[in-house]
Amino acid sequence: MTRAATTDALLLRALDRGTDLPALAELIEAVNHLDDVPYFPTVEGLSIDMAPVSTFDPALDTQLAFEDGRLVAAAQVEWRERDASGPAVEGRPGP
Length: 95
What we know:
Blueprint: E1 4-6, E2 11-14, H1 21-34, H2 43-49, H3 58-61, E3 62-67, E4 70-83, E5 86-93
Antiparallel strand pairs: 1-2, 2-3, 3-4, 4-5
């Protein structure tokens, strides 16, 4: 199932690993270049980073924002079992 929401200017939808990874790599590279962050992912690397695992479902846990068909923002949430105290939730706004 694909969920998408629109605003006046943006289309918000879940990540599609089959089609969105090149645009996501370009977005992260552009933002990191501007912020002097030395991380420039490849599509191949993102395919590993964005692979489903027990604590991360990219279709449910990642949102992309498009303006006029161009990816302009991304956000994701994931959780991990850190110790016996229970899960930790981490949210990251994307570039």
